[in-house]
Design brief:
seven-stranded mixed β-sheet, alpha/beta, about 250 residues
């Protein structure tokens, strides 16, 4: 079972995620207007809605593992996009797509070897991958605050993380191994000032931590983290651009 999300609060506080996503969508400039594009981790559909403008004669598919996010995305998008609940590691499309986009999502997927192979299978040969997610060093200061709060209030969370914050080097190799060619990966510092820091931290950062705690421990833990987090939040984004090759590339020796 996936992490339960407060989709309504996320929708109201996701300005940072939308700003990061704008960088990714800009990399799709020139995509065919009739292309079929898959949005992996669509959240409440705000980025998906912008993606629709890039392919006015095409199709947009959107998946998310959260039923709460999917419900809100369907309300926003209606019949303009096909939205369904899906674990990306189990993704199996009936037909490959022309492009895959993902923003602020894939660091929540714990098996990156399976992840990139599954995305490669969903793309046609020559199809494009454009993603951005948390990368090496992401919210390091916030993670220190979380660990300190755990040591005092929630020892069962010590040393635990719901995220994989990979670096560009290992990601490029994983992409090659999965069948992508011309992979280009890089890190980008994105210091972030959420409009509502408390709501943003509780919703965008602590959702999985709070779900792991008994209900009577959640509020004190969240308050302890929020009290010691100081903006700007030290976000680091991992970007990846690649093209689907005709077959997996041999691993480097």
């Amino acid at each position: 079972m996936g992490t339960p999300w407060d989709a309504a609060t996320y929708d109201k506080t996701s300005q940072p995620q939308q700003a990061w996503a704008a960088d990714v969508l800009a990399r799709l400039k020139g995509i065919a207007k009739d292309a079929t594009v898959l949005d992996v981790g669509c959240g409440t559909g705000r980025v998906t809605e912008t993606l629709l403008e890039l392919v006015p004669e095409g199709r947009v598919l959107a998946i998310d593992a959260s039923p709460e996010m999917v419900a809100l995305a369907r309300q926003r998008l209606g019949e303009r996009a096909q939205v369904w609940r899906q674990d990306v590691l189990e993704l199996d499309l009936s037909e490959p797509v022309d492009a895959i986009v993902s923003t602020a999502t894939l660091h929540w997927v714990t098996d990156h070897d399976r992840l990139w192979k599954r995305l490669a299978q969903a793309l046609r040969t020559g199809g494009r991958l454009e993603i951005q997610c948390g990368g090496r060093g992401n919210i390091e200061g916030v993670r220190d605050v979380i660990e300190a709060a755990a040591s005092n209030l929630a020892p069962q969370l010590l040393g635990w993380s719901p995220w994989v914050f990979a670096g560009p080097e290992e990601t490029e190799q994983r992409l090659r191994d999965a069948g992508f060619i011309e992979p280009r990966c890089w890190l980008q510092d994105r210091p972030t000032h959420p409009q509502d820091v408390a709501a943003f931290v509780r919703t965008s950062i602590l959702a999985a931590h709070l779900d792991r705690l008994p209900e009577d421990q959640r509020e004190a833990f969240a308050e302890a983290v929020v009290a010691h987090v100081q903006p700007p939040l030290d976000y680091v984004r991992l970007n990846a651009s690649a093209v689907r090759g005709s077959q997996p590339q041999p691993a480097k020796r």
